[in-house]
């Protein structure tokens, strides 16, 4: 895996990139944990500014809609999912919030496990559409 | 003696030239792109033949050599009044075929004149923006013209409703006129709104930012929150404006157009009892409740794609116009955060300014926790909701569907914020915080000392929930008007509206309150 550092609008992200046609079991993009904020950086407001780092061609990362705990993961790598199918359930703010597949396709990787604390924008899984 | 024929002929000739705008070729090009002309847009908004044009014979006032001889029909803007469903409305519509719709001195004067008339007569303003920006040849006269338009926008704010349609370019300073108005509608294609173009951003910061990423209807509707409605094309934009006007009074001294039936409807809607899931942790789509609560076909959601954790919009209940504010548990658990607070506070203030009663549907677990929220100023933004509700003197009717926790419960217009009627469903949980967190704090020692901590904790959480996470604690302290079945909601809210439409509140005189912006 190659580690890359990407700076987007003043925020630095460390991104792991792996070639998917190599025959290695995939945890392809362990992406999107912002580096510690530099002093003087602009205050963060509601909406995430940066687009998620590009996954491997044809793949789509499913981003976490809000901070919370992974309550249930309903798919595993290799599963075929339909558009808008519930793939994961978050437990946040006294509520179970379903996360839907943004595309139809095959689950290539599940990047979190049940019980994990995840932040808004965190990549949850990767679907090859 | 009859009027001389030449004079009539000249007038007719001048009219033909003015109505031609930038000419047939330019119109053809627009039509090929699916765009309408400035006058076509006006005609589409108004009832047939109701349009009266102002300043048709205006030409530009630019003295620059080489420009003086040019003819700019109407100076690039069509202004006037007309009727929408029989009710008067003022309009200005920039004509891109005339000098790129650029704003010069006379162009600005025409806009200001029609807005002054709208203010003094008390009729709404619709502004169709389609302009390349300032007419550079007129230098500071153009700049001054923008200033005058902004001043009129502010003078009209809260006096008459102002609706902007962005149906072409709207760049730099020009963007601040629609920004000062109440509702912005932007067409999905061939339109953009921004302060700095991609080249300026690149030169100043090095950032590569295509216009689609920040100036399009899509970007403004979802990320920046600068606009309220996305239209597929010009016709759709006009249709949205007409629908919006159907809910609004002409000015701040009138009531909105209520169509109150003679008979009071007291029907129960049994299906409402089916909508909320039994498990309080399971979300539901609040729009299913809204659809059943409102009269059929009478719902116009505002800022649908922005801060989806709160739903706002206009509707009618038993014929009465209401502004609806509802938590959306299906998105971000329905939490209040920075963007949703801004969205709701702005809507509440519009409703109060124009006498639209507020109906609030509550299922809110709290304010969104997180570093980004705290650093982004959730205190200041969340305070806007408290301020807007407390300052609103229109009828305020709150329905607590399920969760109503902590500060977010107050921010959704509790009795303390001046709600006139509060109805709670039997599944309502009105409490200072969630049962889990509360039990862990209150019974910390009992849990720690227990042999089986998990079982003890579960027991105590359940006991707390049974006692406190119900509507009856609040009901016993007179914080709610009544506990009702969901099936009774429409009838009870309709009755409450009938009673409170005559509400009058007087507060100490002041220039204005200081909403924490």
Describe the structure.
The complex is a heterodimer of chains A (129) and B (517). Chain A is an all-beta fold. Chain A has strands at residues 2-8, 11-17, 33-34, 59-63, 68-73, 80-81, 86-92, 95-100, 105-110, 117-118, 123-128. Chain A is built from no helices and eleven strands. Chain A is globular, with a radius of gyration of 15 Å. Residues 22-52 of chain A have low confidence and may be disordered. Chain B folds into two domains: 34-245, 2-enoyl-CoA Hydratase, Chain A, domain 1 (Alpha-Beta Complex); 270-434 and 469-500, 2-enoyl-CoA Hydratase, Chain A, domain 1 (Alpha-Beta Complex), CATH 3.90.226. The model of chain B has no long low-confidence stretch (mean pLDDT 95). The radius of gyration of chain B is 27 Å and the shape is elongated. The A-B interface holds A 9, 43-47, 65-67, 91-98, 119-120 and B 207, 223, 280-283, 307, 329, 331-335, 337-339, 365-366, 368-373, 375-377, 403, 405, 434, 436.
Largest interface: A-B, 19 and 31 residues
- The N- and C-terminal alpha carbons of chain B lie at a distance of 66 Å
Q: Uncertain segments of chain B of ≥5 residues (pLDDT<50)? A: none
Please bin the fraction of helical residues of chain A: under 10%
* Beta-strand content estimate of chain B: 15-25%
The sequence of SSEs of chain A as H and E is EEEEEEEEEEE
CATH homology-level superfamily of the largest domain in chain B? 2-enoyl-CoA Hydratase, Chain A, domain 1
Shape of chain B: elongated
CATH secondary-structure class of chain A:
Mainly Beta
Rg from Cα of chain B: 27 Å
What would you call the shape of chain A?
A: globular
The gyration radius over C-alpha positions of chain A equals: 15 Å
Number of strands of chain A: 11
Question: What name does the CATH topology of chain A carry?
Answer: OB fold (Dihydrolipoamide Acetyltransferase, E2P)
Main beta sheet of chain A: 4 strands, antiparallel
Distance between the termini of chain A: 23 Å
Flag low-confidence runs of chain A: 22-52
């Amino acid at each position: 895996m190659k580690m890359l550092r990407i700076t987007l609008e003043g925020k630095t992200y460390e991104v792991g990139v792996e070639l998917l046609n190599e025959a290695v079991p995939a945890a392809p993009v362990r992406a999107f944990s912002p580096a510690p904020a530099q002093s003087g950086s602009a205050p963060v407001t509601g909406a995430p500014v940066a687009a998620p780092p590009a996954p491997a061609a044809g793949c789509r990362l499913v981003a976490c809609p809000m901070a919370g705990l992974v309550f249930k993961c309903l798919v595993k790598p290799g599963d075929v999912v339909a558009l808008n199918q519930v793939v994961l359930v978050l437990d946040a703010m006294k509520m179970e919030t379903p996360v839907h597949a943004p595309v139809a396709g095959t689950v290539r990787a599940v990047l979190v496990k049940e019980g994990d604390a995840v932040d808004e924008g965190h990549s949850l899984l990767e679907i090859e559409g | 003696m009859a009027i001389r024929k030449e004079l009539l002929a000249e007038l007719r000739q001048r009219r033909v030239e003015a109505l031609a705008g930038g000419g047939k070729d330019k119109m053809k090009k627009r039509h090929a792109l699916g765009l309408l002309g400035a006058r076509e847009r006006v005609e589409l908004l108004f009832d047939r033949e109701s349009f009266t044009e102002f300043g048709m014979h205006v030409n530009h006032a630019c003295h620059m050599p080489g420009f003086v001889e040019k003819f700019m029909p109407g100076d690039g803007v069509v202004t006037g009044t007309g009727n929408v469903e029989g009710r008067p409305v003022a309009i200005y519509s920039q004509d891109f075929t005339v000098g790129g719709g650029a704003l010069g001195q006379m162009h600005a004067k025409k806009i200001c004149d029609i807005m002054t008339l709208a203010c003094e007569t008390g009729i709404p303003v619709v502004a169709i923006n389609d302009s390349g920006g300032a007419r550079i040849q007129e230098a500071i006269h153009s700049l001054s013209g923008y200033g005058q338009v902004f001043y009129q926008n502010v003078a009209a704010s809260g006096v008459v409703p102002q609706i902007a349609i962005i149906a072409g370019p709207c760049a730099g300073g020009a963007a601040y006129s629609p920004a000062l108005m109440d509702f912005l509608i932007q067409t999905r294609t061939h339109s953009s709104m921004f302060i700095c173009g991609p080249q300026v951003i690149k030169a100043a910061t090095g950032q590569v930012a295509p216009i689609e990423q920040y100036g399009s209807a899509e970007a403004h509707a979802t990320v920046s929150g600068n606009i309220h409605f996305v239209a597929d094309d010009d016709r759709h934009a006009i249709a949205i404006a007409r629908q919006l006007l159907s809910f609004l009074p002409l000015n701040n001294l009138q009531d909105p157009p209520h169509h109150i039936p003679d008979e009071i409807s007291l029907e129960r809607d049994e299906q409402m009892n089916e909508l909320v899931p039994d498990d309080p942790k399971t979300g539901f789509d609040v729009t299913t409740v809204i659809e059943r609560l409102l009269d059929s076909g009478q719902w116009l959601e505002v800022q649908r794609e922005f801060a989806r954790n709160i739903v706002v919009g206009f509707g009618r209940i038993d014929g009465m116009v209401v502004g609806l504010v509802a938590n959306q548990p299906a998105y971000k658990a329905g939490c209040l955060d920075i963007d949703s607070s801004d969205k709701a506070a702005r809507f509440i203030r519009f409703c109060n300014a124009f006498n639209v009663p507020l109906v609030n549907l509550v299922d809110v677990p709290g304010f969104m926790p997180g570093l980004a929220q705290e650093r982004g100023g959730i205190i200041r933004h969340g305070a806007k909701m408290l301020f807007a509700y407390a300052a609103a003197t229109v009828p305020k009717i709150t329905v607590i569907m399920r969760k109503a926790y902590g500060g977010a419960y107050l921010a959704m217009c509790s009795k303390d914020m001046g709600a006139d009627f509060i109805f709670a469903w039997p599944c309502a949980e009105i409490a200072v915080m969630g049962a889990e967190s509360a039990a862990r704090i209150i019974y910390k020692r009992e849990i720690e000392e227990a042999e089986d901590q998990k079982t003890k904790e579960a027991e105590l959480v359940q006991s707390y929930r049974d006692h406190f996470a119900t509507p009856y604690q609040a009901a016993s302290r007179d914080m709610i008007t009544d506990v009702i079945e969901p099936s009774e909601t429409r009838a009870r809210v309709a009755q409450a509206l009938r009673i409170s439409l005559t509400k009058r509140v007087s507060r100490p005189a002041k220039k204005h309150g200081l909403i924490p912006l």
